[in-house]
Design brief:
heterodimer; A: alpha+beta; D-Maltodextrin-Binding Protein, domain 2; 2 domains; five-stranded mixed beta sheet; three-stranded antiparallel beta sheet; globular; B: mainly alpha; two-stranded antiparallel sheet; 15 helices; 73% helix
Chain lengths: 554, 372
Amino acid sequence: MKKSLYEYAIAKSKASRRTFLKGAAGAGAVAAMSGGLSSVASSAFASSDLRSAILKIPGVGVGSPGDADWQKVGEMCLGGTKERVKEGEFNGVEISFLGLDSLNLHNMLHRGFLKPWEKYTGAKIKWIDLAQADYNARLQQSIATGTVDFDIVQSGAPYEGDLCGKGLTSEMPGWVADQIDLADYVGYLQAPTGTWDGKTYRISIDGDCHNFNYRTDYFENEDLAKAWKDEGHSGNWEVPTTWQKVTEVSKFLKGKKHAGFPAYGYLDVQKGWGGFGFYFLGSIATAYAKHPDSPAFLFEPDTMKPMVNNPAWVRAIQDVLDRRDCQPPDQINADPGVTGFSQFLAGTGSMVSWWGDVGSNANTSDESLVQGNVGFDILPGSDDVYNWKTGKWETLSSGPNYAPNMAYIGWGLYCMKTVDMDTTKRKAAWSACAHIGGKDLSLWMSMYPSGFQPYRNSHFNIDEWVGAGYTNAFASDYLASEADSYNHPNAAIEPRIPGIFQYYSIAEDELSKIYAGEYDAQTGADNIAAAWDKITDQIGRENQIKLYKASLGL
Amino acid sequence: MTKPTSIERDPLYVVAPPIVTDKTKRFGHIIVWGTFTLMFLLAIIQFLNTNEHITFGFKTWRPVLYAYILWACAIGYSRVLIYGEKGKRTLFVFPAVMFILSIVIFPMLFGLYISFTDWNLSSIDGREFNGLDNFYQMISDPYYWNALKNMIYYVLAVLVEFAIAFLLALLLNSQIRGRKFFRIAFLIPLMLSPVAVSWMVGKSMLEQRFGPVANLGRFLGWETPTFFSSPEIARLTMMCMDAWTFIPLMIIMLLAGLQALPKEVLEAAKVDGANKWTMFKNIIFPIMLPVSLTTLVIRIIFKLKLADIIIIVTAGGPGGATDSVTSFIVREYRDRSNVGYGTLLSFVYLILIIIFMTILIRFVNRWLQRAA
């Protein structure tokens, strides 16, 4: 959506940006408005030739795209670059790019997208690929030892405290903001995300949150529906919307069969992943711990006292323990990546929390065996929520408490300060980032396996998804789960404080012991809290409090 | 008869006539102290600049490093200027000494200093000396003690590996069909990188759903063949994977020992009517004792460094059951950026290894002397 149109829509509906987007994908929201506006909006949303052309590469349902496809898409999306950069303008410039090679995505795609850009501009990219589990350590070491040997880094907003807070990043030039259309980002990716002390440093290429992915065929299975009734469960056999129900469904499915194979309920991630595994507990805990009256759910804002051992988090841990017997064998040693892709997408389990790429892979990845059988929703809620201020559980008059987990807040591209010393290099680095973070190219990434998910208002145009080959039902369902998570008024937004992954990492070690049955949930949670306090003291409590409060908008 | 000159006496030994004079000696001292002063001054300036006591300085410590290299070269040159021929002889050893000093001793001392600091990479304040705090933290760290306990299990498993390796070495030493093929085939696991072993065996062959080993388990009646779910089985699986990789190394060493056995002794025993077991018990095993003990010691050294397959396959889980000291230290460094504490753990582990190996080697020597 164009910025002017968006502003017009806000003014016309007298709504805040959040209200405007709340509860529906952007297209749906526009359609719900006045006739005059909707006609303007629909023309704005009409798929341009370029957008519809790139979305047919290779086409949904014809297998995973490869390097040739990425290059083709990159070539077709060079328009923004050509408007601002002359051919061969960056001849002789070399830029190093640090990113991930997880699941053969991320940097693998960037290489393809940037090949035509390199050819046109004359610049050369040197690639530094890291595995997900090695990412945090490599970045922290570079920051702490002042050995920043890369010009561009693909990083997450949680690292902004480390990167931007220490003055290591280059401020985004105005022309880049124009090229990528910053105003098109969904609400929670707008400032302060990507900014530090009022300056913008980030080009978003992803919008992370965990959503709830489930197998529709499980919940349409009549035998299971009958068994559910026969066993005296309350309510219909349907997709659970609270964690209490998720546990009930998981226990119900234990020992049963679906389509001739053992049936499993919710797949709990129990293994560490260099800190990233903690998000999966967070996705359960936020429903219990994130009270609508407070943005805090990890630490108490005035003291940085950990909340991880309060009754809400302990209940989340206990949920995982209660579902241990309902998991596929060896689940305790299943890497999170295995759970999302090798299990759920390969047909094992009926429910999983994951970033948006389970959805974008369900119909486009060669690994997926569940095409047409996946549904989406925001993360389940809880019948009651813990109020950390009063220390009591509360039942909200509005119904269950939902608090979608904005896990990692999304990947972005940051140029390092090192490029500022050379005007041409600076322009080249920002141009490369702007190419990847461009509006059209990002649409393609949100639809195909890339490691990234929709993050712009313009990504939520269902017609474009249908044009690419998705069914209307799938696109509506998937996009609504994403948009409703991003724009949820009680979304749990991760704090952008230094060392956040250290907290997660030590928590993973303790959780591993709890899940292995070495301690009960409360003892383990107390251990995590003690370790978190130690980390806070080591990093500097006063500074952490200051940054934490700032990140919560307090 | 004229007295031969030193060159005539030993032309290969004396390379050049002595050229040392008071002037060269003085020059030698000047270049050593001059370059040392330069290096010292640069280091002081850089130290003060890094700690923000002065505003001028270099961007990095690289100039100090260059001054150090210059100083090292000056020392080398000065040996010749001051001591002449004798100094040239020193030059044969000098590079090695400087290399060890630079690459081993200096980093060790620096590491020792780091281990007494509170250094979290995310800390705004950077590195701070904290005395023995890291040591006290280690004393009360259940993860470290758990990892040490696991190391005892892992080291004890070497005895089983040794028994298997000895058996296989005896087989490969006998006149079996396809002996050459088996000798090469047994070596393959050793040639594989532990990372490849972790993925190929740990994550593929032992995979619960489609792994061939799991399928075999199911075929044999094991309902849910899982190799990493319970602490004991997970630890045992890690031991087996590590053994699979390193038993070939033990086989090579033992096979070399077996092939060097004195044939006449074995033949004499056969003539005397000794059966195979008697020959093994009374002749082969005692003669092989030095080789066996060396094999065990080397294998234990490898075992104490066990980390890669654990990090990749189980990440130390479930519940720390497979954690080794090294894999725990890696997590402390890599995931938690806790450099000071991680370094102390490494040093303590190094000291423990040195103590353990010293005792073990003494014990082995004493045993060997008694056996002799």
